[in-house]
From TrEMBL:
GO terms for molecular function: DNA binding; sigma factor activity. This is RNA polymerase sigma-70 factor, ECF subfamily. Belongs to the sigma-70 factor family. ECF subfamily. Residues 119-171 form the RNA polymerase sigma factor 70 region 4 type domain. Gene3D superfamilies: 1.10.1740.10, Winged helix-like DNA-binding domain superfamily/Winged helix DNA-binding domain. Residues 27-81 form the RNA polymerase sigma-70 region domain. The keyword Transmembrane helix does not apply. GO terms for biological process: DNA-templated transcription initiation.
Amino acid sequence: MSDYSYYADDELVQLMGKDDHNAFTEIYNRYWKRLYVLAYDRLRSRELAEDVVQDVLTGLWQRRSQTIIRSLPAYLATANRYAVFTQLSKMIPLAAVETLPEAVQAVTDDTAQLHFLQQSMQEQLKQLPEKCRIVFDYSRNMGMSNREIATELKISEKAVEKHITKALHRLRLQFRNYFHALF
């Protein structure tokens, strides 16, 4: 058995995709504490934070051969964030929203609007050409730099900038009336 601590994240992901339990164990040991700290910071509950991290890492193992992961830290952070939101949504049942004080209900309404906006934005992004959509996803969701994206997709940095600009322009046009009404 080799020492998996010397493997890079992308190598561990590839090995895990081939059912290598030791690679998964290394990922688990490498990221458990980081994910726990992020979850605990939002939930303020040791048990809930542990449950969230367990769910995220279990999901990673269960989808090991189905998911393409470009950046393991970004993937895990995103999965962790969604798991925390799911946990938070379980803590406040929708029926209880009507009984909340106005300030708290306003925050809940804002959260619902944000969720609607995110869904609408995803629908708009799905309509972009594939390369443009991929570039935007790498930039905004995975946090990759233009240079990293250009290297990954084997295109120029100028092309990366053009795709991001195109995606942002589409989003601005689609949501201009919504944001104009807010401000």
